[in-house]
Automatic annotation (TrEMBL):
GO terms for molecular function: carbohydrate binding; mannosyl-oligosaccharide 1,3-1,6-alpha-mannosidase activity; metal ion binding. Its cofactor is Zn(2+). GO terms for biological process: mannose metabolic process; N-glycan processing. This is Alpha-mannosidase. It comes from the Eukaryota.
């Protein structure tokens, strides 16, 4: 073109001008006719409109019709057949075998088989892979930073020097949190050595998460986010993608981590802590290596080769073979001033004792090898915080080197080989020897080891331990997720509009810190509540700091997307709740409205589907009204702030229902009025309250109490204040649904942070924790046009609220439960494990069956096993549990991890809080005494089952929606300033149409610059979860305005960011798979799948 123009061709020049004019005309015609429905939306025009009037904020929203589940379109999952179904197999076990007292399952039958196999000429030679490792907890008996300074830094420094000194030694590392902290101050030459060791395969990064996550109490968002954070760090700094998992200390194992690891590029994983009966069974069947499958995965792409370590724990004593007293001789650590069982026992290997010691060790290795058909042994060489002294590297290496050389040089005699290696070497070796491994589905909860007196010790206490901290964790998760989504869109809108984005870079550091603080808390001694009290406080301070940071980041992003102020850099979008410290519950800040002023309330819906929500605010006057985004008055309800005897008049509760579009920022308004309509004022039913000037007071009726809405009637016991039964109006069906609160008395020294065991002397007696407050409990009802709520107070211990909403739609179908539990200061409520139990007439089998979620990813069936007591029948739930028969299902949704059980037909119970004065001898060294006043929220759903039940059980679509709403509440802000100073857009829709009803936007997290990790770039990882739903449960509930389609709708785009490049990646975003030419519409997920896409916002 340049050459043509230079020659002065006026004809060509004229043609170019005409063509350009035509294109511009077409562009403006297109803008006038079709304002931003598709990916080619006019970004420039929107920017101009936005700056002028803050009114029409496109992309134009395309509203989907309501959706109902239909059998014709519902995706059906047929579970795959497997060799081992953990549920079926587990119930057949002997839980009191003869070897319980010795705690070693190796008996004559194992010995006989070992002797026979040794003589078998067809058996492959023994190969032992020694894996030096150090298990470094990022917090437990010390804080994360204390462990780093006292041990971990030395371990990593020693690793760099000693792996250079001993050229065939290997090592593995799992916790990227520690590695990242060390890396910050490490000398560049040390960094180069680490990179070389990784490249050479002598240092393997196993799992590669920020921490070695707990697998029972962690929720899918945080569990995956810490894995992404770790993998991204490893890719950026070491250019490595982990190929093996190493999960040796979590207390029981589920299928989520193997699934995540496989989807991230790993091909094998190691597990350790499973029930002693499983250990024996795998050893007996020679099934120690198996393929862990996902029951919903039809293709096999999620299948993960898994190795179960055959003995108790990952230290040398319990790893070399079946006889710990022999293995103690082969832990060669000897540090001056340190006296341990191994330092006393182990002796240095010399030419004089090498034959005897080599043969002794080889016998243990061979016995371990006899538990596998392939005769390959993975032998971990380490323990907690090992190799922190340089001399230990020398002691372990030189002694093992002498033993290895002796054995390897006599292959004819011993038919064995011992080498240093890593898990990757182990999986490579066994794949050479075996073509097909047994398949397994299910999980390994509940984990049990054995008490010193030979009784089972079930690790089901930590599912509930320190509920306050588990809730704090989920509060950060919800705030971080909202901040991630808002930040990603605000940053890229700012970049494309040429705004200064320096502030965004400052906020990005806080965002990264929040990811890492949340990630750190997923550690298996953090979210579990099983660290010392002062360590839990350190975690809490980190969570609290990041909750504050992510909330202020949301404010900043909302201001930049929806607001404009006369004063630049002022902060005027403020959170409506405040928290004085991590120890205090959040408080709603009372909103004051003066005279003619209109107070703006900004709401952000962080879900990619529309939602209907009841918003609750505190206001200083009841003389107000509520206006929607278009300033039209909407129904509202004024309720009192009260207890059972008095009503406060300096603050009121304001309730109103909002319908929010997906990922939308909506501005509602509060105005002062002279007269409030009568229907907006709540009626209070209370026997001990005097007259009131604002609220009509009526006495409580004698006998049972009823609450009702358009969909159901609830009957409560007039004495206790607890729910008795529910009547569904559509069918007239009466369902028994009695709520009960009680506790298990703890067995001293046997129930603690980790373990749950009721006192065996009082095993069949529930402790009536409410007895001390009976008959002085106080019951009152607040009823109005939007909601009716019954409250019963039992002293400080329990405040129990049940609310229903007066709606003829989804909100009217569910019962909201809120329990405030306060154990007060010890020794009050000592040895108390308090639960809420629902007693229904649902016929869920005998023995009863119920379903629990696994990390919020999928559901799994549990069947009661009488022989192992209540402690062995308690399971972790992070989002929900349900019981059902052929016609009905009762689902309980939770907002944090709790232990749950169905111990009698028709029962479903959840543990609320636990206090045990004594340690349970699992290493923490303390009882549980730091209980705090805790608010526990639940939704209760009673759903009908129509037609044939699903072969693979899943929640209803409505249950999934309600669960997402409970986990990711609407973010509420108040605008501080006058109309003249601040303009807020009525509604900013960050998404032009709803994602499919079952496609959950798990995250949209901005990527960092590869060379400058503290700087954001204009791409983000979009993580999606296709939440499988039932084809037969709750199908009568219509989902508002979200499509039940397989793919994201045509023309779906983000606010002002229509030009996207979308690439499918591995789950943690470290491997690119393929570019999607159809962008968001090209994303395709099967039910239950979690997938990640890199979204590049083209400048």
């Amino acid at each position: 073109m340049y050459k043509i123009l230079r020659r002065g061709s006026s004809r060509v020049f004229f043609a170019c001008v005409v063509l350009l004019t035509l294109l511009l005309c077409l562009y403006y015609v297109n803008q006038a006719q079709a304002p931003s429905t598709g990916p080619s939306a006019g970004i420039l025009n929107e920017e101009l409109r936005y700056d002028r009037g803050l009114t029409s904020i496109t992309p134009d929203y395309v509203e989907s019709p309501d959706a109902k589940v239909s059998l014709d379109t519902c995706p059906v999952i047929v579970p795959r057949n497997v060799n081992i179904d953990t549920q079926q197999e587990f119930r057949k076990f002997d839980f009191q075998p003869s070897w319980m007292r010795s705690r070693e399952y190796w008996d004559d039958s194992f010995e006989t088989r070992y002797v026979v196999l040794r003589k078998d000429p067809t058996r492959p030679p023994l190969k032992v892979i020694l894996v030096p490792h150090s298990h470094t907890d990022p917090g437990w008996l010390k804080t994360f930073e204390q462990y780093f300074h006292s041990s971990t830094r030395s371990i990593l420094n020693n690793m760099v020097s000693k792996l250079q000194q001993w050229p065939n030694m290997t090592f593995i590392w799992s916790e990227v949190s520690f590695l990242s902290l060390w890396w910050e101050s490490a000398h560049p030459t040390k960094k180069m050595v680490v990179k070389r060791l990784v490249k050479d395969g002598r240092l393997e990064m196993t799992t590669g998460g920020w921490v070695m996550t707990d697998e029972a109490t962690s929720h899918i968002y945080a569990m995956l986010d810490q894995l992404i954070e770790g993998h991204q760090w490893l890719k950026t700094n070491l250019d490595v993608i982990p190929e093996s998992g190493w999960s040796v200390d979590p207390f029981g194992h589920g299928g989520t981590i193997p699934y995540f690891l496989k989807a991230s590029g790993a091909s094998g994983t190691v597990i350790q802590r499973i029930h002693y009966a499983w250990k024996q069974w795998f050893a007996k069947e020679q099934y120690g290596d198996f393929v862990w499958i996902q029951p919903w995965d039809q293709t096999g792409k999620a299948d993960m080769l898994t190795h179960n370590q055959p003995f108790d724990i990952y230290n040398i004593k319990h790893s070399c073979g079946p006889h710990p007293h022999v293995c103690l001789n082969f832990d060669f650590r000897k540090i001056r001033g340190e006296y341990t069982e191994y330092s006393v026992r182990a002796v240095e290997i010399t030419p004089n004792n090498v034959k005897q010691m080599a043969e002794l060790l080889l016998e243990q290795y061979s016995r371990t090898g006899s538990l596998f058909t392939h005769n390959v042994v993975l032998m971990p060489l380490g323990d907690d915080f090992r190799y922190d002294h340089a001399i230990e590297w020398d002691q372990q290496y030189t002694n093992y080197k002498i033993l290895m050389d002796y054995i390897n040089s006599r292959k004819e005699e011993y038919n064995a080989e011992i080498v240093f290696g890593t898990p990757k070497d182990y999986f490579r070796e066994i794949r050479k020897r075996i073509e097909e491994f047994p398949t397994l589905k299910g999980d390994f909860f509940v984990y049990s080891d054995i008490f010193s007196e030979g009784r089972p010790a079930y690790w089901s206490g930590y599912f509930t331990t320190r509920p306050y901290m588990k809730i704090l964790d989920r509060e950060l998760e919800a705030n971080l997720r909202s901040a991630e989504i808002l930040y990603t869109i605000a940053l890229n809108v700012a970049k494309q509009s040429g705004k200064d984005f320096m502030l965004y870079e400052t906020y990005f550091e806080k965002l990264v810190k929040a990811r890492r603080n949340l990630g750190l808390f997923q550690h298996h001694d953090a979210i579990t509540g099983t660290s010392k009290s002062f360590v839990m406080k350190d975690y809490a301070l980190k969570l609290f700091e990041s909750i504050s940071d992510t909330t202020s980041l949301q404010s900043f992003a909302i201001q930049s997307l929806a607001g404009s102020a006369s004063k630049p850099n002022s902060v005027y979008v403020l959170a409506e709740s405040d928290r004085d410290s991590y120890e205090k519950l959040p408080k709603k800040i009372p909103i004051g409205i003066n005279g003619q002023e209109t107070k703006k309330i900004v709401l952000f819906n962080p879900l990619a589907q529309p939602r209907q929500e009841v918003i609750s605010l505190k206001v200083t006057s009841y003389k107000i009204r509520v206006l929607d985004t278009q300033k039209n008055p909407i129904p509202y309800q004024i309720a009192p702030v009260m207890n059972a005897t008095s009503i406060t008049h300096d603050v009121y509760v304001l309730l109103f229902v909002v319908e929010l579009k997906p990922l939308s920022i909506a501005t509602y308004h509060l105005q002062q009025v002279d007269k409030v309509p009568m229907e907006a004022i709540s009626t209070v039913y209370c026997s001990r309250c005097g007259k009131d000037n604002v609220f009509p007071i009526k006495p409580m009726q004698v006998g049972d109490v009823q609450l009702e809405n358009q969909r159901m009637k609830l009957l409560f016991d007039g004495q206790t204040g607890f729910l008795k039964r529910v009547t569904k109006k559509a069918t007239g069906k009466i369902m028994q649904c009695a709520i009960q609160f009680a506790a298990y008395p703890s067995a001293q020294f046997h129930s603690g942070a980790y373990l749950f065991m009721p006192d065996p002397n009082l095993r069949d007696i529930d402790k009536d924790v409410l007895e001390a407050y009976t008959p002085h409990q106080k019951i009152y009802i607040v009823s109005g046009s939007l909601s009716s709520r019954l409250t019963v107070e039992y002293g400080k211990l329990l405040s129990h609220h049940v609310a229903i909403y007066h709606r003829d739609d989804g909100l009217g179908e569910a019962i909201y439960l809120r329990n405030i539990v306060d154990f007060e200061t010890p020794p009050k409520n000592r040895e108390t494990e308090m639960f809420m139990r629902l007693q229904t007439d649902i016929l869920n089998g005998d023995p009863p069956e119920f379903y629990t979620d696994l990390n919020g990813h999928q559901m799994i069936k549990r069947t009661k096993i009488e022989r192992i007591g209540i402690e062995g029948n308690y399971f972790p739930i992070t989002t929900m549990a349900y019981i059902e028969d052929t016609n009905h299902r009762l689902t309980l949704l939770v907002n944090h991890c709790q232990g749950a059980a169905s111990y009698q037909p028709g029962w479903l119970e959840v543990m609320l809080d636990r206090r045990t004065l004594y340690d349970d001898s699992r290493g923490m060294g303390e009882g549980l005494l730091d209980n705090r006043r805790t608010v526990i929220k639940h939704w209760l759903l009673l759903e009908d089952i129509t037609g044939e039940k699903d072969k693979y059980s899943k929640p209803s679509l409505f249950a999934n929606h309600l669960s997402n709403a409970l986990n990711y509440p609407v973010n509420i802000f108040v605008v501080d300033g006058t109309e003249g100073d601040i303009a807020m857009a009525p509604e900013v829709r960050l998404l032009s149409q709803s994602f499919p009803c079952d496609l959950h936007l798990l995250n949209l997290r901005t990527n960092h610059d590869q060379k400058l990790p503290h700087f954001p770039v204009n791409s983000a990882l979009m993580v999606l979860h296709r939440q499988g739903y039932s084809c037969s449960v709750g199908v009568d509930v219509a989902m508002k305005h979200c499509p039940l389609t397989e793919k994201i709708g045509q023309g779906t785009s983000f606010f002002k960011l229509a030009n996207l490049n979308v690439t499918k990646t591995s789950l943690t975003g470290t491997k690119t798979k393929q570019r999607l030419k159809d962008g968001l519409q090209g994303m395709s997920l099967q039910p239950m799948e979690v997938e990640t896409f890199n979204v590049n916002f083209v400048q």
